[in-house]
């Protein structure tokens, strides 16, 4: 097992490269990117980043071969002239299984000693004869930097002639700087994060992406967005590790705006199979961009992203996707486009956001009765929801010609109006009572409104009309006196033909139709607390591997970068679930890795979570390994195996390995019934293997269910049969 670990680390250290990001002092633009030499050849110095990484990897492979028995005399001579490199830390990191730090240490030593070849087995690095120094290295590997300093100080006190190795001091300085940077980041001291990064460029390498992410985030928080873009862009230009590249885009999307993200996405690479590297997160990026458009009506999001979210809404049936589209269109006064999405969201899962959006559209269409009915249940969910509801009530009462409102509805509108002391709806109640020939009730409503808002002229005018209808001339005179010099129409009440003043309501009242602002309400989280999160496997025939965030994780704050290594196993587990919920699977996988240090349910949950995280990132092989790292219950095992086998079947089909596709589908059947979309995959595999009778039989069965793709395939096969005859 350890030899496998070493091989993986050596390969990744060589492939990742050790180029560092160079930061200028605060206020200066970002400097150029510095690449340490991979060798002494001048041609390598001038080589572009991609070629340089390949040169380093090639040298690493050569070094591994040279370390084996049977090396040539020339290689042995080279080894004799190799620089003296303290490899003690490698042994400690390898012994602890700390692949990340072992990887980073190899990259660091290669940068310092270009001709140095990593040992084939770091566990075989000789133990230092100096036992005290050996203990210092052990403390260093455990991140106990203060204890290392104390041990150095004690030894120097006991032995003034002793000098600690420069390499140990240098590494200790860098490690302490990293710890300080992480602490500053965790406490929101962004200026300090930038300062430490500028002072310690050796930290800013692809081998430690977490530090680069923290520095980039600090740039954003200190209003230096361009430098944040440079940092993220540097990682996409130079870092080769696929999960790191995907996680970098995910991290950038949480701190950069839509326009800034487009430059980073332009750096996307396409694999040999034609698949773009960010396809697995394209849907979530589209959701984020459309959501940004919801908040900013001046932002025009590329229609391609709207189409992606529309497809997600159709395929996955999440209310949150329909809401994103509904608010995007509503904020741009595209009501006809917005309404179907709000109705769809309410049909899937009624919510304040969906109801408010639909109510605003209904008000614009002059359908206040439906708007009131839609909003009543959600009126107390927010101030904006209440404003929308009250706008609907005022407009309902103000309809002309008059509509009869059911007593139940009138009573609930009256109760809310009295509770909120809403002048506009109270005024319209007065006019409605007049129209129903209830002038005394109308007078009471208008008087009540003036108690709520003494300078509300429409209510004073209505009160005058009601008293005129009641032939309360003294009361009318009191109103006219109170408003003398402030309202011409109140002053003229009773001076014209009384019959005109007492005419039907639609000739007298001038109701103010209340408009509700298209303010963006506080929408629910994209994934609600009780909704399960679908693990997206790019372009799969169906959604697989679901998980739900646990209630106790709700207090975890994972919007800012945290180092899971500094948390307890339970804390790291909570961080992992939190990161999964905001769709940062690679960071979640690292958090679950730290949680695997726990025991019992914590370890089981960590293995389950890490497997889900790798599945979401499209790393099926890693997901399979993670699923074996702890004992899982039967349902979780079946869930993960189903997801993994689905992934493998789809990947095999894309690679045109049809017999292998059928094998994976057969295995999958042992855990779950085969859905129709995978049955289509099976039928095409039969066809491509020449098993036409089996394919026809399956397509016929699928065609009877109404699947259009199966019907088309069946028609094509029958046409081919006729042509062969």
TrEMBL record:
It comes from Shinella zoogloeoides. InterPro entries: TPR-like_helical_dom_sf. This is Cellulose synthase.
